[in-house]
């Protein structure tokens, strides 16, 4: 048995690993880009389908749910079809469903097409991670993960800007059509360059864990619905949220129990016994928590409080892309020269610094006050994400990579979804708390408030009746109070990003570092 394992580990790719990265990176880029490229076109699509903004949100949600469902089943599909065949099939499904998205003429057709797109694209990222880790020797894995990390971090940032430009200059359907030529080219390269290791080839008598797949689907669907709609429904004050949460928790418990008890389970949870994998995954969950949450709320702050339009708010995310690009390159170059745990620690410190700087914002800041923290945040993303992927896989065998990558991708996505939901709730709740504490200042007995009202009333009285002018003056001051309390809600949320990044740092020293001298 031990000899068989050694033979499996001795497998080497036929082609140069760097050549193999081309179709892998292209496939991963398409999937990650489509997570955010449709965000800015959502209102345009809602108008085309005569749907409300809330209804149109299912265009985004359906994609995330479908991609989340397929991720843990990646290892099983690889055994059923062979990994190369499944990888090509996933790209083909993604391309065909992208075409269906582009020609959709109703909300129902669009949601159905996005579900197919999510099912096709959800497996691409974990497969890309697994294939890259296997094709490269341990000493070069840091560079390979740097390349993949560049895609994972930068593509979501490019998405809103590219989507906004395409939507404004052409039509929203072209944000889906651009996947077709890229996808077909990727299929051609993958068919020519990829090959299956012995442990990733098609296997006989592969059984599907129907029960596990059912519990997984129920868990992820209910979780996504709660995270998307819970804040608008006032969370657990709504009966349907409580009931859905019960179903979500029970289905999650039953899923994990079934995976532990069943012999032919959908996923192999034994990888969590590996300390490096567990801690590395935890770090990635935190990074995705901050990454997706900050990408959701920062444009919201700029558009609602600072008066930026959609395109300008998207442009403010570009410095983060520049920071990510720089840190991903540096982490790849330094991965076999510096302790990777120190690189992850540096990245988390950068995230903490950026969160602290963003927590000092006000309504008079310039664009540079957003661009600089965004750049630092991008540095943190690259330094923390890329080495943590390599560290989490250092003690795993190649045969475990596909299963481990799928689980890691699933948990990263859940972390990002939870981060987005928590940040939105924090802004609303903290703004309410600050408004409650500040509204007492708008008191007739407060001389400063009275002075402001009188000065503003006198100014407005030149254009209208004094009574109306006084009412308008009080309304303006109350609106300013709302703006300030909302600003403080954003400040508290950005401060949370800093805290969660700093808290996770001590766990890094429990990781086993990559010893390149032994390789």
Number of domains: 4
State the share of residues found in helices, binned by percent.
over 70%
Q: How does the major sheet shape up?
A: none
Rg (C-alpha, Å): 25 Å
Q: In CATH, what is the class of the largest domain?
A: Mainly Alpha
Total helices: the number is: 21
Task: State the fourth-level CATH superfamily of the largest domain.
Answer: MFS general substrate transporter like domains
Q: Tell me, what's the shape?
A: globular
What can you see in these coordinates?
The chain has 519 residues and is mostly helical. It has four domains: 1-207, MFS general substrate transporter like domains (Growth Hormone, Chain: A), CATH 1.20.1250; 209-265; 270-423 and 496-519, Up-down Bundle (Growth Hormone, Chain: A), CATH 1.20.1250.20; 433-488, no CATH class. Helices cover 75% and strands 0% of the residues. It has 21 helices and no strands. The chain has helices at 2-9, 17-36, 42-48, 53-70, 74-81, 83-103, 107-121, 124-135, 141-169, 174-177, 179-193, 210-229, 239-261, 275-304, 310-315, 318-334, 340-358, 368-393, 401-438, 447-460, 466-503. The longest helix is centred in the last third of the chain and has 38 residues, at 401-438. It is globular, with a radius of gyration of 25 Å. 48% of the residues are buried. The model is unreliable at 1-9 (pLDDT under 50).
């Amino acid at each position: 048995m031990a000899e068989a394992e050694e033979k499996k580990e001795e497998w080497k790719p036929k082609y140069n690993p760097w050549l193999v990265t081309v179709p892998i990176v292209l496939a991963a880029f398409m999937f990650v880009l489509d997570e955010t490229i449709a965000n800015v076109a959502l209102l345009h699509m809602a108008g085309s389908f005569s749907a409300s903004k809330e209804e149109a949100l299912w265009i985004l949600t359906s994609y995330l749910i479908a991609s989340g469902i397929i991720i843990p089943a990646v290892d099983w599909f690889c055994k059923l079809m062979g990994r190369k065949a499944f990888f090509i099939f996933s790209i083909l499904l993604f391309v065909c469903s992208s075409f269906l998205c582009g020609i959709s003429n109703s909300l129902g057709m669009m949601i159905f097409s996005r579900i197919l797109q999510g099912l096709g694209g959800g497996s691409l990222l974990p497969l890309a991670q697994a294939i890259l880790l296997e094709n490269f020797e341990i000493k070069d894995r840091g560079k390979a993960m740097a390349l993949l990390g560049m895609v994972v971090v930068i593509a979501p940032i490019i998405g809103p800007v590219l989507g906004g430009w395409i939507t404004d200059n052409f039509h929203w359907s072209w944000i889906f059509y651009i996947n077709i030529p890229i996808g077909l080219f990727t299929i051609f390269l993958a068919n020519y360059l990829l090959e299956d290791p012995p442990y990733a080839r098609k296997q006989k008598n592969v059984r599907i864990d129907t029960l596990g797949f059912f519990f997984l689907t129920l868990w992820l669907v209910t979780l996504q619905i709660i995270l998307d709609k819970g804040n608008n429904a006032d969370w657990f004050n709504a009966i349907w949220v409580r009931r859905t949460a019960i179903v979500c928790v029970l289905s999650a418990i039953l899923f994990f129990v079934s995976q532990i008890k069943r012999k032919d389970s959908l996923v192999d949870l034994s990888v969590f016994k590996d300390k490096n994998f567990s801690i590395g995954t935890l770090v990635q969950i935190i990074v995705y928590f901050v990454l997706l949450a900050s990408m959701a709320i920062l444009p919201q702050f700029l558009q609602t409080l600072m008066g930026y339009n959609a395109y300008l708010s998207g442009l403010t995310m570009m410095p983060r892309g520049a920071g990510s690009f720089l840190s991903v390159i540096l982490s790849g170059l330094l991965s076999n020269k510096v302790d990777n745990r120190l690189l992850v620690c540096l990245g988390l410190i950068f995230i903490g610094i950026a969160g602290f700087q963003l927590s000092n914002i006000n309504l008079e800041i310039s664009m540079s006050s957003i661009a600089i923290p965004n750049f630092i945040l991008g540095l943190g993303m690259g330094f923390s994400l890329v080495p943590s992927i390599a560290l989490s896989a250092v003690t795993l065998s190649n045969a475990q990579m596909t299963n481990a990558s799928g689980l890691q991708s699933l948990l990263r996505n859940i972390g990002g979804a939870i981060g987005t939901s928590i940040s939105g709730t924090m802004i609303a709740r903290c703004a309410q708390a600050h408004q409650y504490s500040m509204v007492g200042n708008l008191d007739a007995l407060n001389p400063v408030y009275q002075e402001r009202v009188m000065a503003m009333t006198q100014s407005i009285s030149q254009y209208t009746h004094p009574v109306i002018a006084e009412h308008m003056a009080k309304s303006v001051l109350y609106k300013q109070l709302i703006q300030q309390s909302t600003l403080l809600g954003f400040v508290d949320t950005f401060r949370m990003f800093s805290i969660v990044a700093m808290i996770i740092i001590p766990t890094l020293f429990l990781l086993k570092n990559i010893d390149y001298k032994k390789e």
